[in-house]
Specification:
heterodimer; A: alpha/beta; Rossmann fold; six-stranded mixed beta sheet; 9 helices; 36% helix; globular; B: 263 residues; mainly alpha; MetI-like fold; 2 domains; 10 helices; 0% strand
């Protein structure tokens, strides 16, 4: 299996021996990883391995106990510009007092109303929520709420899209649809994507490379390059012998560490 | 076969409710008129109703009602602003909470109406001591509801706002206070009812013959007009019901989105 040697790639995000402890409890132990620009990277690991902690540190919501995060060439201290986060819990992440269009326009509150309207519309079209602009989040299904959350993240034209278990609370069919939506958006906009998930199939289906974390205190078990062709397809990609092989490999990585 | 707990149709509900109320009033009337209960000063429903109808057509009395509404609104307004401000700060900042926790607990248990006479001594009789008494009694549900509303703001909503570049002051004003508003408004609703009761009581105790309370006081002492006392009391009660209905309507229209708050 090939290890990541993405030297020829421009690096969007760099983690340097990042560790995080809460009191005596070491959640994340010395994680070093590079997220290449314009690619889909997926961090996969067992529950409680500190994946969400890691995303909170990358997004500047939390600070590492040791080590550093560099985004876009600058060290992360507080929430950086050019980064958008999609949370697992869409129903809590969308503001319930705002209709869908205002929720999506919220990151653009400092630009002119005309430009804002246009960019909100673009984001709504990109995620297929046309006609739902005037609904409140709680008037929509879970899948549509997560689409709205993704649209809000896209509206700010981020360089880096972070997603924390984005599909963990939706049904299987919606999940497949949203995975394909993400791949479409990535193919169209070329944004750098970093997804955190516990689902091995999902990680391989989405990723250009998979960063497999061990059980806590977590370290990077291995970075696995996913050489499956794009565009990917829920049926044929998942039947590809290479997919099956990669899945077996990542599964063994999560088991053995 | 009909189930025992089949829900009643809306028409039936109305008919039964009206019939029950009228029935109780009619029995009451009958008890007094027949002499079965004879104690001077008991209200006779038809006479009280007639007196109430007369009062509602009387501009002098209607002015008293508006005086009461004015004092109540002033007190409630002050309570709402102060309660949301202090409650919001207490909910957002643990240091403010710790600093104000004991003063709030101490003042909260104080019977505000007992402060009335002191306020009259300090400020002189008039609208001010009554409005302040009302504010002192109605601030607590607003303050406490806002406090717990702000404190209970969904951490995911706050984290989301932070990733969208909202700074600490914005987090308080745009996220935490806004998401606490339905709770604060419930506090205002509760305070509105308490405030009206306190307004009329304060008019009785420390007023200068103004407002509904002032009318009740004059009717009971000077003229011994007991029907007037009963009628004005009922009108004050109906006013409370109307105010509550108006606030409920406002709640449904302005804060309908609260269905979306994760519980």
């Amino acid at each position: 299996m090939t290890s990541a040697t993405s030297t020829e790639q421009a690096i969007e995000l760099e983690l340097q021996s990042v560790s995080k402890s809460y009191g005596k409890n070491l959640a994340v132990k010395s994680i070093t990883a590079s997220i290449p620009q314009g690619k889909v990277s997926v961090i996969v690991g067992p529950s409680g391995c500190g994946k969400s902690t890691l995303l909170r540190i990358i997004s500047g919501l939390d600070f590492p106990t040791q080590g550093s995060v560099t985004f876009n060439g600058a060290p992360v201290r507080g929430v950086p510009e050019g980064l958008a986060m999609v949370f697992q819990d869409y129903s809590r992440s969308l503001f319930p007092w705002m209709r869908v269009d205002r929720n999506i326009g919220f990151p653009l509150r400092h630009i002119s109303a005309d430009e804002r309207r246009q960019r909100v519309q673009e984001a709504i079209d990109a995620v297929g929520l046309k006609g739902k602009e005037k609904l409140y989040p709680w008037q929509m299904s879970g899948g549509m709420q997560q689409r709205a959350a993704i649209a809000r993240a896209l509206a700010s034209h981020p360089k880096l899209l972070l997603m924390d278990e984005p599909y963990a609370s939706v049904d299987a069919q919606t999940r497949a649809d949203l995975e394909d939506l993400l791949l479409d958006i990535h193919a169209t906009l070329g944004v750098t994507v970093l997804v955190v998930t516990h689902d091995i199939d999902e990680s391989i289906y989405l990723a250009d490379h998979v960063i497999a974390l061990s059980a806590p205190p977590s370290v990077v078990a291995e970075t696995v390059e996913v050489d499956l062709p794009r565009p990917r397809n829920q049926i044929s990609t998942k039947q590809d012998p290479r997919f099956v092989e990669l899945r077996a490999h990542v599964t063994s990585l999560l088991r053995s560490h | 076969m009909r189930l025992l707990r089949d829900p009643l149709s809306q028409n039936k509900t109305i008919v039964l409710g009206v019939a029950g109320t009228l029935g109780v009033l009619a029995m009451w009337e009958l008890l007094i008129r027949s002499g079965a209960v004879s104690k001077p000063g008991l209200p006779v429903p038809t006479r009280v109703m007639a007196q109430a109808a007369e009062l509602l057509g009387n501009t002098v009395f209607l002015n008293q009602v508006f005086t009461t509404i004015g004092e109540w609104l002033l007190g409630l307004g002050v309570a709402a602003i102060a309660g949301i401000l202090v409650g919001g700060l207490m909910g957002a900042f643990p240091a403010v909470f710790v600093a104000f926790e004991y003063p709030v607990e101490a003042f909260r248990t104080l019977p505000s109406i007992a402060v009335g006479p002191i306020l009259v001594l300090l400020l002189g009789a008039g609208v001010a001591p009554i409005a302040i008494t009302v504010a002192l009694s109605s601030i607590w549900p607003i303050l406490l509801n806002t406090l717990y509303g702000v404190r209970g703001t969904d951490p995911t909503a706050v984290a989301t706002a932070r990733t969208l570049g909202v700074r600490p002051l914005g987090l308080l004003m745009q996220i935490r206070l806004v998401s606490a508003l339905p709770f604060a408004f419930t506090g205002v609703r509760v305070a509105a009812s308490i405030g009206l009761i306190v307004t009329v009581s304060a008019e009785l105790l420390i007023g200068s013959g103004q407002g509904i309370g002032g009318y009740i006081l004059l009717a009971s002492t000077n003229a011994g007009n007991l029907d007037g006392v009963y009628a004005a009391t009922i009108i004050a009660g109906v006013l409370g019901v109307l105010i509550n209905a108006a606030f409920a309507l406002l709640d449904r229209t302005a804060f309908n989105w609260k269905k979306g708050l994760a519980q």
